[in-house]
Amino acid sequence: MSDEHGKGGQQDRLRNYYLGYTGVFIALILVLALLERHGLPPRWIGYAFLFFTIIIYAAIGIMSRTTNVSEYYVAGRRVPAIYNGMATGADWMSAASFIGLAGTLFLSGYQGLAYVMGWTGGYVLVALLLAPYLRRFGQFTVPDFLAARYGGNGARLVGVFATVLASFVYVVAQIYGVGLIASRFVGLQFEIGVFLGLAGILVCSFLGGMKAVTWTQVAQYVILIVAYVTPVAMLSIKVTGSPVPQLSYWEVLERVGRLESQIFDLPAEVQARQRYQERADALAVRIDALPASLTEEKQRLSAQINERKFDAATPMREVIALEKQRRELPANAEQARTRWGEQQRAAKERAAYPSHHAEAYPGATVEARNAARFNFLSLVFCLMVGTAALPHVLMRYYTTPSVREARQSVFWSLLFILALYLTAPAYAVFAKYEIYMNLVNTEITRLPGWIAAWGKLGLISIEDINRDGILQLAELTLNPDVIVLATPEIAGLPYVISGLVAAGALAAALSTADGLLLTITGAMSHDVYYKMIRPQASTQWRLVISKSLLLVVAVIAAMFAAQKPATILSMVAWAFSIAGSAFFPALVLGIFWKRANRQGAIAGMVAGLLVTLYYMLRVQFDSIDWLGLHGIGMEPWLDIQSTAAGIWGVPVGFIVIFVISILTPPPPAATQDLIERLRYPAP
Fold it and tell me: In Å, what is the CA distance from 561 to each residue of 317, 358, 619?
């Protein structure tokens, strides 16, 4: 009775704290909206949101500081189910979900629903197959489970490597998102914004580990869900008069469909696509003629420069532009083949007839439509198994007081996540409607200022290829990462809403990055240093090692993020394929098949991971300059893109574990007894 009373008192205090915090945040929004009407500059609104949120997160991190190992790694296993669900929701709703999901739905329409279906289905797998059993196991990390289940440190080491790799790719995407936010809304250089975001991440996780991260993530969930829902609700009121975008979604989708039927076949639009096709054909000819074509291009530019230098009527800016083109030419034929090949693919994409937003599995031929369908299903599969195998998600279920609350926590997680997922399709459709209505077929000289602001970050580009002075849809390139952040400006909403969205995106990126960094350093300090190198290490020294590694990994991740390696959602999808191929077969068979043994698990994890990495790298990249690799690209197998690389690695993992386990001795009786206890977890 006293335990129940204590739990009730704890939950009452938590509810009061977070209700008060929510009230203060809403009051801040209203105050900033009032100040904006009285002339407060937009940049100061950005500063207000940035510093308020960072200060709150830092305060929680400081108040949650701890030197207790259990609190640092698993929050003392005292997090109530509803708050763990909220923290998991924030941990899950990363920059990919907040920034990238609606953008992907905007660009790919129906095809983007693969992310919603895959991620949601993944949580069903977590609830049914993994969360209760891992909580029953009751250690700190996923490699802990692998070592105990399969015996020895071989499986643990492979698990550590896969944990670090998947989490690192994931965290780079989050820090990249932070850099975008800081550079656009605070006016900082992108690279400086990246390291500012890094500081925000560290203040949340450095002092208190999982304890600080958990309570910070609860606060971050409040901000990110308010920030995500508010602009869409305002857009819904503006366009349809309804404050519930999920209900007015279908009406706006029909309007978008009618606009697409009008815009896609406009003569100027068709002409622009023809120009891009001509460019793609010309680039193909240049690529085939290498290396002679590169020499000819250098000679042509040099001749033009010399001609214009001696022409007094030629503006100097034209000469400077031509000299820049010459300097930026590829240094050799191999580089030219890579660069011109990328330009050719981009031109082909712009030349292609656009797909309608609501069209399922678009394509000009039956083969193309079948390929789109297979890609869709493959991506859903990879995201499902990846969700179920992500170490930073699974670690959250170590923090609950009991197995029963672990199960309840999965329910709350899915409920809190659905609030965003049910809004994202509406976000994409409303954004597309605004762009079709207010941007397409507008005079280029009269385009709004936000176009140039986002263009400086390389996320929006405009090219008047048919030189009619009017912006056609084919001439507009939008990076998916810009849609959510720019939609308030696109729709002409008050700038305070843009600042609110930026604060939400920052909360989403920081919340996930905190958990990922803790997962990486936990695997390295707990599983490698403590479990394998120095088992007698003191509690204090273990935490020192973990915090030191946290700093090192965070700085390295920020350096990678500063290079802008890919879109946020692409990087996150790669992380899911890596995690799914490395962990899902070993975890599922480890729980539900007693015959699975150490040799099979190690071989299956390595094989699945290698197949996934091989396919991902060769399909995504034609060259990796910093490794000195060129001409490594290959055509996708069955037209499956690199984001679904796990479709090959996961089956390989299952097959290899099964075959090797059958061909080698079964695990010892003690291990089989452990499996029996895990399969029947206590309530």
Answer: 34, 33, 21
Q: Of the candidates 525, 509, 521, 505, which has an alpha carbon nearest to the alpha carbon of residue 555? A: 521
| pLDDT, tens digit, 9 for 90 and up, residues 320-346 | 877 888 888 888 888 888 888 888 988
240 and 134 in a common domain: yes
User: Are 565 and 661 within one domain?
Assistant: yes
Same domain, residue pair 236 and 346: no
Q: DSSP assignment, residue 422?
A: T
Residue 17 lies in a domain: no
580 or 332, which is more confident: 580
User: What is the structure's pLDDT at 2?
Assistant: 43
Q: Which two tokens stand for residue 45?
A: 């609104």
Helices 154-185 & 568-592, crossing angle to 10 degrees? 150
Average of per-residue pLDDT across 484-493: 84
Nearest to 220 by CA among 158, 163, 178, 250: 178
3-state secondary structure 383-408: HHHHHHHCHHHHHHHHCCCCHHHHHH
Q: How confident is the model at residue 273 (pLDDT cuts 50, 70, 90)?
A: very high
Q: Is 441 left (phi over 0), alpha (psi -120 to 50) or beta?
A: left
Q: What is the pLDDT of residues 552-571, one digit of tens each?
A: 887 787 777 777 777 777 88
Residue with tokens 């796990």: 646
Domain boundary pick from 306, 322, 352: 352
Of 63-72, 195-204, 361-370, 449-458, the range with the highest mean pLDDT is: 361-370
End-to-end CA distance of the chain: 18
Report which secondary-structure segment, H or E, holds 505: helix 495-522
Q: Are 17 and 80 in contact (CB under 8 A)?
A: no
- The token pair at 486 is 């720019």
DSSP 179-219: HHHHHHHS---HHHHHHHHHHHHHHHHTTTHHHHHHHHHHH
**In this structure, what CATH number is given to the domain that contains residue 618?**
1.20.1730.10
Q: Where in the sequence is the domain holding 307, given as residue range(s)?
A: 267-352
Tokens encoding 166: 């998947």
Q: What is the mean pLDDT of residues 259-282?
A: 93
How high is the mean pLDDT of the chain? 83
Burial profile 41-65: b = 16 or more Cβ within 10 angstroms, e = fewer:
ebeebbebbbebbbebbbebbeebe
67-94 mean pLDDT: 80
Q: Are residues 97 and 201 in the same domain?
A: yes
At 677, which amino acid appears? Answer: R
Examine the pLDDT at 681 and tell me if it is beyond 60: no
Q: Do residue 341 and residue 387 come from a single domain?
A: no
- Which pLDDT score is estimated for 507? 83
Residues 611, 574 share a domain: yes
Residue 1, pLDDT above cutoff 50: no
